[in-house]
Specification:
Length: 106
């Protein structure tokens, strides 16, 4: 089952800030994962998050695009078939995870 992808306001801004070539790669990765966004331990593409440096990110998943150094964090709403992108950021000393923790605690 393919999930509908939604972006929160902040993640959409982050996507738009990427250069065009990186943006295409990120969008393609999100589309690929949306086809099967459940945990990779259950046969999907998502990598579940837990506690990251004292921040509870349980219930969220990440996509790593290693050659770009980009992390995409999303939340699944299985009953609604929605994959909500919470953050798109560079692998920069856990900054993307700090941003996610701040956004989910609003």
């Amino acid at each position: 089952m393919s999930y509908d992808v939604e972006f929160i306001k902040e993640s959409l801004v982050e996507l738009k800030k990427l250069d065009n070539s990186a943006k295409k790669i990120v969008v393609k990765a999100i589309e690929k994962v949306a086809a099967n966004p459940i945990s990779r331990f259950e046969g999907g593409y998502g990598t579940p998050l837990g506690n990251m440096r004292g921040k509870n990110l349980t219930g969220l998943y990440k996509i790593k695009i290693k050659n770009l150094g980009v992390r995409i964090v999303y939340k699944l709403y299985k009953e609604k078939g929605i994959m909500r992108v919470i953050a798109i950021g560079m692998r920069d000393d856990f900054k993307v995870y700090d941003d996610v923790a701040e956004r989910i605690n609003k």
